[in-house]
Specification:
This protein is an all-alpha fold. The protein is 65% helix and 0% strand.
């Protein structure tokens, strides 16, 4: 350990340093490797391969990124690795973010709801759901999702959520006591007032439709 710490640091002029940098694959080469791996594995290609490919396509701004993330949701899953439900929730949330950035808030809302089906009270998915609801004009629905995110998060992480929720509560005129409850940080009362606008938080009926059917409706898979 001490011997390794005493060794001189390599600089860009050193042969070993230059060789390491030269051996690092480009984005194009990495994408080619991932595509080849997915092709070789066929129907047994893991979700991780599709996620890695999707992230690379996202960085490159490729239009096919949504379809790639969709394929990750249909890929085989290792149930023993970090918990399959949580991993599925993460992938649905990632797909929702891609769809939202592509100007598809309706489909994004659907994806976030699937994320919440696999991991109820998932704060990041709830926050993203609120943003998607705002984009399609569902202000009270967005407030309900934000309130759920606050209820699911530690108090120290809720400052910005409370501030955004207060802004929306003051802007609306449909619920008289909402602004007062938000300003008092009375989360139970806030959620009670927003209950009629919380349908998207109920995912109990989701299993009636398979993920494959949902993705086909979104025109992300054939």
């Amino acid at each position: 350990m001490l011997r390794s710490l005493a060794m001189p640091m390599r600089t860009p002029g050193d042969r070993g340093f230059d060789r390491t940098c030269e051996d690092r694959p480009s984005e194009e080469a990495l994408q080619e490797r991932l595509l080849r791996l997915r092709s070789e594995q066929g129907g047994s290609a893991s979700a991780d391969v599709a996620v890695a490919l999707g992230l690379l396509q996202l960085l490159q701004g490729q239009e096919s990124v949504a379809s790639t993330f969709a394929s990750a949701l249909l890929a085989p899953e290792d149930d023993s690795y970090f918990g399959a439900p949580r991993r599925r929730a993460t992938r649905w949330n990632m797909l929702g973010a891609v769809l939202a950035n592509r100007g598809r808030p309706e489909d994004a809302v659907c994806a976030y709801r699937w994320a919440l089906y696999w991991q109820p009270h998932y704060p990041r998915a709830l926050i993203n759901l609120a943003m998607a609801e705002l984009k399609r004009g569902g202000f009270l629905e967005a407030a309900a999702a934000q309130a759920a995110a606050i209820a699911s998060s530690p108090s120290w992480a809720c400052g910005e959520l409370w501030a955004q929720l207060e802004k929306e509560a003051l802007a609306q005129t449909s619920i008289d006591d909402l602004a007062e409850a938000v300003q008092a940080h009375h989360i139970a009362r806030v959620r009670e007032l927003l209950a009629p606008h919380s349908d998207n938080l109920d995912t109990s009926s989701m299993p009636a439709t398979s993920p494959a059917e949902v993705l086909k409706e979104m025109k992300l898979v054939e």
